[in-house]
């Protein structure tokens, strides 16, 4: 097995599966009721992709429940948080998309901005949910992000600024242990993370490369590098 998606079969998971398949990997979809402590499973996988979805239960990071109400799923939280910690301990290549980035941050002791508009207040200028706030289609680009030099993301995309799509109302507040910022939007919101001291591939992006990879070389390259890392792990 070369790559895996972390959630039950749905259209988004299928897009991730097709993306890694197009890069030569064999995708395996993991159901949320699977035992994440199954060492035999982890040993058979050579990379894990954590996809998007609803809010992580704020009780897991000391947040405000009234602001985190989008499809909270305690079973999925428990599965993904445990799987994330196991994958990082095993130094497997990991790619995290949108919610996946937030799961990684919480798994490593970080916290989440429960709602970006409420957090920024009058300073909320960049619209981070392009479908609901701007009426843009999934494949359209919503805003730019600034890529931090000398990070894995900068190495992967080869640019200081890139355009991204955007479908989130939450973001990283305090970074988890060992994580660093790899990109920010112009309003200061964390848009990508990496690990500071790990030999394994680890990248989290707040946007959805699975929706733009056929038209955006940077998005396509994210999958290509993840699969390449998985093939050598």
For this entry, give a set of tags.
233 residues; alpha/beta; seven-stranded mixed sheet; two-stranded parallel ribbon; globular; disordered N terminus
Q: What general form does the structure show?
A: globular
Read across the widest sheet, the strand sequence of neighbours is 3-4-11-10-9-6-7
Number of strands: 11
Q: Which sequence of SSEs, written as H and E, runs from N to C?
A: EHEHEHEHEHHEHEEEEEH
How much of the sequence lies in strands comes to 15-25%
The helix-and-strand class reads alpha/beta
| Unreliable parts | 1-9
Q: Count helical runs.
A: 8
Q: Helical content, roughly?
A: 25-40%
Average pLDDT value? 89
Determine the N-to-C terminus distance. Answer: 11 Å
Report the radius of gyration as a whole number of Å: 16 Å
Largest sheet: 7 strands, mixed
């Amino acid at each position: 097995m070369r790559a895996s998606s972390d959630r039950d079969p749905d259209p988004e998971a299928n897009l991730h599966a097709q993306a890694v398949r197009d890069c030569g990997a064999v995708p395996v979809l993991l159901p949320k009721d699977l035992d994440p402590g199954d060492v035999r499973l982890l040993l058979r996988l050579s990379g894990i992709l954590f996809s998007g979805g609803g809010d992580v239960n704020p009780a897991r990071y000391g947040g405000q429940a009234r602001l985190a109400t989008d499809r909270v799923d305690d079973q999925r939280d428990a599965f993904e948080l445990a799987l994330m910690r196991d994958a990082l301990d095993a130094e497997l290549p990991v790619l995290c998309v949108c919610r996946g980035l937030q799961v990684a941050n919480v798994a490593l002791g970080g916290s989440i901005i429960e709602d970006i508009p409420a957090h920024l207040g009058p300073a909320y200028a960049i619209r981070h949910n392009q479908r609901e706030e701007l009426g843009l289609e999934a494949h359209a680009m919503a805003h730019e992000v600034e890529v931090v030099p000398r990070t894995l993301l900068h190495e992967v995309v080869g640019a200081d600024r890139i355009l991204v799509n955007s479908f989130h109302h939450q973001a990283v507040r305090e970074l988890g242990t060992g994580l660093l910022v790899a990109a920010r939007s112009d309003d200061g919101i964390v848009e990508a993370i990496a690990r500071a001291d790990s030999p394994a591939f680890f990248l989290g992006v707040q946007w959805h490369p699975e929706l733009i990879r056929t038209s955006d070389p940077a998005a396509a390259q994210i999958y290509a590098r993840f699969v390449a890392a998985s093939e050598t792990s």
